[in-house]
Amino acid sequence: MAKRVKKRKKKKFKIIRIFIALLILAVIGFGAMKGIEFLAANRITKEYYIASNTNEIATYVYNEETKKMDEKGKIIRGKKIISHDKIKTIDEINYYEVFEGEDSFYIKEDNLVTEKEKAVTETEKYVRTSVTVYKNEKDSKIESFIKKGNKLEILGYDYLDDDGLVNMYKVKSGDKEGWVYRKYLVDTEELAKANYNENGIYDTHKDRKYSYELYGGKASTLDYYPYERIEFKDNPILKVAKSMYLNAGTISGIDSYIDIAKSSGANAMVVDIKDGALAYPVEIAKEYSKTAYDTAINDFSDYQNAIKKIKDAGIYAIGRIVVFNDEHYGKDHKDECITSNVSWQTWPSAYSRGAWEYNVELAKAAIKDMGFNEIQFDYVRFPESAYYMSTSSSTNFRNKYDEEKAEAIQNFLFYALDQIHKEGAYLSVDVFGECSSEYVTSYGQYWPAISNIVDAISSMPYTDHFGRNVDTWSNAYRTVYNWATGAAARQKEIPTPAIARTWITAYDTPYWNPTVVYDATKISDQAQALVDAGLDGGFITWHSGSNIYKYRQIASAFSKDYK
Fold it and tell me: For 76-93, how does the pLDDT look when each residue is reduced to its tens digit (9 = 90+)?
């Protein structure tokens, strides 16, 4: 009896053990199935970046019928994508299946990298437009300069824009390394050495010259490629100006000038930042020109408050900087100044990269500290006596990079525009009235080569500056109209002309013996002449003294609508 009970117990325990074992197996099996389901739903993924030597590449879909890859579309270089490393090999090419959101497609293995720094695969580029080489990708410090047609080794890049295009490349040329803007480079030597000749643009300029050699350079060596016109969302450019000029001495009385502007309809003010002396102590000047810093005219805060008042009144603020005619910088950097028996003027050479840096750094500081909408560069040229300097063997222009004068001016403006645009402001440049002619001037200004780059070009056709033997000042309309027809023609000879915003005479003439009062009527005559000739960018009134009584006298000219 006891044996039967014991047997039944053993059998019961055996059944229980079997049940438990089955239950464990069931649990394990269920867990395994769920694990498989989990892994299937969450396959191990890997991040890649699209890599190429161009800004975009092709994507593909697999064609089941042909067993080939069909091109689907394009994807931008540098974009991050996900792959499960599912690979199809066709004609010895590996294609990875990748995912972008809900979409899936294939990309060639060679176009995938795991580090974004390796997304740019080009190894060389050629210089299409002579380029400034920067010490780094962050500021305006200059390392060197490389002329058109040269090859560059690509070492890296700073970032890619939304179209997959590089902003700046890190490059090497010879034993020099530095940074250059991508927009001035092309893929082949042939493209680099070519000249832009759409619609015969280059043919229009290449053979132009004065009746004798002026030594300013040849129009054929200059750049005429079209350039994108940038407009900043929070700083729209002033397209039609009715502007007053204020020298640095007006800062203490700024309220009176603002009252005139608001009551008359003047919509802009050009205010000096540097004209010989600095208008206020710019901190960066300590590094480049201590003499300039120590002789500033106004207090920093007074100047800053004045510009703030101008902007608060809804007036477009333009900061004027006299560039190369700078005795203060010249005294501090005599080795960068032109030397010649023809002239004893202390004039930093337009070839001087130190002078380039200084003026651009002043501009950038003024935008940051004062909030200028635009920077206007004046005296962007060699001295008036440049022709006689060029014919004298005693002259040293400090021409380090073997540039013609007009090349140096254009190259400086490329550099300045890039840096000023980085700060969200615009660049305008003043030129002599002579530039409306069809030749490169002796001091290096050529209208089409300048207007094609900068945001606004401001010429100075002052009515009493056309010679003393003929009265060109009494009939202001005719003088300005005759000049402006030439300037309007120059504007049509380039693919991307700047806004033509012109300086007009606002002082009694002639300047050496005033006999004609330039009142509101004379201002209106000049403004209308510009429009009638085809220059519709408006005007800036030039009165070197910025005399408040003169501005009151001519105020009604700002209120007119010139059509």
Answer: 999 999 998 899 999 999
Tens-place pLDDT, residues 418-470: 999 999 999 999 999 999 999 999 999 999 999 999 999 999 999 999 988 99
- Cα–Cα distance, 353 to 131 (Å, whole number): 13
Task: Compute the chain's Rg from CA coordinates.
Answer: 34
Specify whether the CB–CB gap between 373 and 426 falls below 8 A: yes
Distance from C-alpha of 22 to C-alpha of 528, rounded to nearest angstrom? 101
Residue 24 pLDDT class (50, 70, 90 cuts): low
Question: In Å, how far are 13, 126, 183, 188 from 191, measured between CA atoms?
Answer: 90, 8, 13, 5
Helices 353-370 and 300-312, interaxial angle, to 10°? 60
Residue 45 has pLDDT above 90, yes or no: no
- What is the b/e burial string over 365-397, where b = at least 16 CB atoms within 10 angstroms of the residue's CB? bbbebbbbbbbbbbbbbbbebbbbbbeeeebeb
Half-sphere exposure of 424 toward its Cβ, with a 13 Å CA cutoff?
Answer: 11
Backbone torsions φ then ψ of 98, nearest 5 degrees: -130, 165
Q: Report residue 69 as tokens.
A: 């890859």
Confidence of residue 39 (pLDDT cuts 50, 70, 90): very low
According to DSSP, the residues that pair with 375 across neighbouring strands are 319, 427
Model confidence pLDDT, tens digit, residues 307-351: 999 999 999 999 999 999 999 999 999 999 999 999 999 999 999
Q: Which residues contact 328 (CB under 8 A, 6 or more apart)?
A: 276, 277, 278, 289, 291, 292, 295
Tell the burial category of 258 from Cβ atoms under 10 Å away from its Cβ (0-12, 13-18, 19+). buried
At 545, list the tokens.
């003294």
Write the DSSP assignment of 293-358 as a string of letters.
Answer: HHT-SS-HHHHHHHHHHHHHTTPEEEEEEE-S--HHHHHH-GGGB-B-SS-----B-TT-HHHHHH
User: What is the spatial distance between Cα 141 and Cα 133, in angstroms, rounded to a whole number?
Assistant: 9
Alpha helices in 90-155 (DSSP H): none
Q: What is the mean pLDDT of residues 227-234?
A: 95
What would the DSSP string read from start to end of 279-293?
A: SS--TTHHHH-HHHH
